[in-house]
Each structure stands twice: as C-alpha cells, then as structure tokens.
Amino acid sequence: MQVKKILGAMVVLGLFFINATAQNNYHPKADKKLLKTIEQNFTDAAAQYKVLEKNLPADKFPKTYFPATGKYEFSNSGWWCSGFYPGTLLYLYQETKDTALYNEAMRILAVLKKEQFNTSTHDLGFMMYCSFGNANQIAPSPAYKEILLNSAKSLATRFNPAVGCIKSWDGKPNEYLVIIDNMMNLKLLFWATQASGDSSFYKIAVSHANTTMKNHFRADNSSYHVLNYNATTGAVQQKKTAQGFADESAWARGQAWGLYGYTETYRETKDKKYLDQANKIASFILNHPNFPADKIAYWDFNAPDIPDALRDASAAAIMASAFIELSGYVNKKTAKKYFATAEMILKNLSAEKYKAAAGTNGGFILQHGVGHMPNKTEIDVPLTYGDYYFVEAMLRYKNSTKK
C-alpha cells in the first residue's frame, strides 16, 4: 500500500471521528493550550511506542510494565488486549504520519490475523476491530473485510438465544457468564451487518445490549461486573463484581465500559433507549460523591480507602473518549458538561502525574492503571488499553473542535 494512498484515506478516518460528535448543535470550542499539549502528546507517544517496539518479542503483544523491577509482561495473540497495540500504532500514525509506526502495525497484525477464527473468547471486538478495524478505516481492503467478517462470525458462535447474550467467560457447565466489558465487542457485529448485509449480527448485538440493560444495572444505574445466567432458561443465577472491591460496589472501569458501550450502541442503532442508558450511567459517574474533582476515577467508586485509594488512568481514558462522543448526542447544557469532563480528564492525564516521561514506563504512555485489584495483578502500572483510549480520546477531542 502506497503511503500517499494511505494518507489520502485518512480523511475518511478523520471524518469518522468528527461525525461521532456532530449529531447536535453543540460546537465545542477548543482549549488552545490543551490542543498544543495534545499535539506534543502525539509526538511523545510515537517516541514511546518505538521504545516499546524495541523491547517487544517478535510474536508477543504488550500487556504492562513494572517500573519497580523494569520488567515487562507480554501476551500471545489470543489475549484480550492483543488488538490495542496495533490499534494505538495506527491512531498515532494518523496524527504523526510516521511510516515506522504503520510498518510496525502491519508486522504485528500479521501475528494477530489467526485470531479471526478464535471462538473461545468474547473479546474479538477489542482484539480485531480495534486493530484490523482501524487499519481498514485507514486503507480499506477486501483482505481486512474478510478478516473482520470471520471475526464477527466467530464472535456470533458465543451467542445463546435462550439467554439473549454472548457468553463472556467459559465457566462450569451450569454457568453462563456475561461481563459488562462485552458491550465493547458489539461494534464488530454492527459493522459486520453494514459490511455484509447479514442482519443476524445486528440482531445478536441488539439482543445482548437489551439483556445487559435489563439485568446488569442497579437502581442507581451502576453496573455489576459479572452476571451468571442459566444457559437453558436464561434466568439470572448470580450477580457479582469480580474485579471490583465487592459484589455490590461500582468497579470504575466497568462503569466506563458501560458508558462507552451504550453510547456506541446508540450511534449504531439510533435507538433512544440506548442513549437514555448512556445518560443514566453518565449521571451515576458525574454525581457520585466519590468521583474526584480532577475526574480521574478511583479504581472502584466504593473502594474502602478513598481518598487514598489508587486511581485508574485506564478507566479515566475510556470515560474521556465516551464523554466526547456522548456530548454530540444530547442537549447543549448536558453536552457542555460531558465535554468539559472529558477536557479535564485529558488535561490531567497529560500532566506529569499520569503521562510518563520520555524513555520511561517501558514505552507505555500512561502511568497508574489498575488491572485486577482482587487478584493483585497489574496494580498501579501502565495498561495497553489505557494508552489506546487515551490516544483515541485525544483524536476525538481534536476532531470535535475543528471548525
């Protein structure tokens, strides 16, 4: 693929981001200082990812880095985070025009390609759409389309009509486990219907969103992390929060997944009930007494040691990206609130506390993510998906404020 052709196709990707926030009459005014910071962030992030690339084994994907020991944790292509590294490279390439980033993305996509046939995971949206989907938006090709359609077919095999959801985790024979994160994988299915004309993908996505909306949320519009359904009857057997502080607590990244997922589902369906759900989740987040003034969420809204609890930069990045898009679908007053929240998050994530200094942090962009506190894994470290959504949020901010 010639670089000139690729650069020309970038206009399409830029318009994609603009259109994500062009549904109302609210036209946010850019903070010029923040825009300048974002431009520097893109440059710095590109340099960081070249550090990461140098330390990455040929057939592995980055998960995290431990500053205290200087050691990395990598994964194979089947890990749920595998799509974020190439996805981030492609986002950064769009902004920097640095072909070295694009070439590295192409190299690692070749390693990831086989996962299109993986039916053992619900995370093919994360894995394949955040990677091959981004590549296809930059330079559309029949090969990418085939990979993405095969990925959607693989994801669809995990759908159970009796439950109305895509199975997330494979548990015991009497368990059918569905996690809030799975809302993030529906975009692949929506895309597949658009690309193929096969409405079955769309119907599965809508069924999953409806069932999750019915069962996953509490009266205060916070969500559980995991629901255990009866695979035969579809009855809810158990509600819990595996990665949060307690079953009845509001795990921050889970709330972010829901906010983003229902915003995205509204975009794809234009069904107001999904917009209403996204607004309800937003209200929970913004009005919670434990949501910090700087908008960088504690790892759990009910963590017992607040205000000394760890923050989760990854949750904050996801929220920022979601709030920018959601600001395009609501009235002006609400839009201003959502956009201002995202703006504050981006300002604070760009500050020294969260953005790693050049050459540090193993090449990751953000510091202070929290992966799985109960398991004591990935605590206060960089996370590959934190970087991805931070870069995405900056792209959305830049494009939404264009005149």
Describe the structure in brief:
The protein is mainly alpha-helical and 403 residues long. The protein is built from 13 helices and 9 strands.
How would you portray this structure in words?
This protein is mainly α and 403 residues long. The protein has one domain: Alpha/alpha barrel (Glycosyltransferase). It is 52% helix and 9% strand. It contains 13 helices and 9 strands.
Integer tally of domains: 1
**How far apart, in Å, are the first and last alpha carbons?**
31 Å
Number of strands: 9
CATH architecture: Alpha/alpha barrel
How much is the radius of gyration in Å? 20 Å
The number of distinct helices, counting runs of at least 4 residues, comes to: 13
Shape: globular
Walk across the major sheet and give the strand order: 5-6-7
The parts where pLDDT drops under 50 for at least 5 residues are 1-22
Mean pLDDT: 94
Q: What's the helix-strand series?
A: HHEEHHHHEEEHHEEHHHHEEH
Structural class: mainly alpha
CATH fold label: Glycosyltransferase
CATH class: Mainly Alpha
Helix percentage: 40-55%
**Main sheet attributes: strand count, strand direction, barrel closure:** 3 strands, antiparallel
**What proportion strand?**
5-15%
